Amino acid sequence: MPSDSTASSPAADRRPDRPDAAGPVAVLVVTWNSAKVIPGFLASLPQGMAGVDWRLVVADNDSADDTVEMIRSLAPEATIVQTGRNAGYAAGVNAALEAAAGWDGGFSVGLVCNPDLRMREGCARHLVGALGSPVDGGAGRVGISVPLLYEEDGTLHYSLRRESRVTRALGEAVIGNRRAGRFPRWSELVTDPAAYRSRTVADWASGAMMALSRECLDACGAWDESFFLYSEETEYCLRAGDHGFVTRLEPAASAVHLGGESQVSPRLWTLLTLNRVRLYGRRNSAPATAAFRAAVLLRETSRAALGRPANRAAARALVSRTALHATPGP
Question: What is the per-residue pLDDT for 12?
């Protein structure tokens, strides 16, 4: 980073105790009309990135507000990539990765962050330190590390997930994902409190914040842009697993994630639901996918019967002949 960074800048105090010859950590942020949340993210960087050599790159997906101007003002040293369109989250990550790869000396770790994230003290240092660690039982090594995530009110967010299965979709439909989450056979969601007190390996985790080793990135390649939004982090974690890299929680690292729009928006919940089925279909047989789709439909229709608009919209899309085959987009 430039040596003249001032204390008032979010880029200040970023030098580690010792230099990293492999290059800095690339903090990768994708924005779209993020002016309300990006100042808080930038303000959290000095404490969250303390002890780590880092640089910031932002990929902006054609924001209509003053997101870009705000970043230029608050973080003038940041690399800003303007995609020129609402290209989707994965496309934004890929654009940011490409920009970081062009830095002199490249980068050592990719730290993917949502703009509505607020890092806590030393978060990145713990995540970066976990990468490359061997996993007990010879199951691979850590290629993706994730922090504990908290809601704005301090409630722990259940961010760890298991890979989709028909039985898990059925369990969530019948007894709900939080209750079923205590039983690995019956839910994707991991709700066992003990899992969040230790370094727990998961099939995938929330993409609000994840550190990816350069070795993992090189092996797995670009993020899959076909999902547009939702399931892209799921696909990447599962692909990393296919290459021998595990996703693991680092409980010493923590952050606050504001989030939550998918829980109330019928359009976004529908996209999330359809992408779950799309991804399952890519990794499983047609009969298994039909069964999984039926189980997900059972969940959505049962919740729609309670008068929930988001579930009603998702159920309609699941029975549509064209929705699953349509290209996701803005």
Answer: 34
For 81, phi then psi, to 5°, come to -115, 120
**Termini Cα distance of the chain:** 35
The β-bridge partners of 213 are 109
* Parts of the chain with a pLDDT under 70: 1-21, 260-264
| 149 close to 157: Cβ distance less than 8 angstroms | yes
Cα–Cα distance for residue pair 212/109, rounded to 1 Å: 6
Half-sphere CA count of 272, side-chain side, radius 13 A: 15
- For the chain, what is the HEC assignment? CCCCCCCCCCCCCCCCCCCCCCCCEEEEEEECCCCCCHHHHHHHHHHHCCCCCEEEEEEECCCCCCHHHHHHHHCCCCEEEECCCCCCHHHHHHHHHHHHHCCCCCCCEEEEECCCEEECCCHHHHHHHHCCCECCCCCCEEEEEEEEEECCCCCEECCEECCCCHHHHHHHHHHCHHHHCCCCCCCCECCCHHHHCCCCEECEECCCEEEEEHHHHHHHCCCCHHHCCCCHHHHHHHHHHHCCEEEEEEEEEEEEECCCHHHCCHHHHHHHHHHHHHHHHHHCCHHHHHHHHHHHHHHHHHHHCCCCHHHHHHHHHHHCCCHHHCCCCC
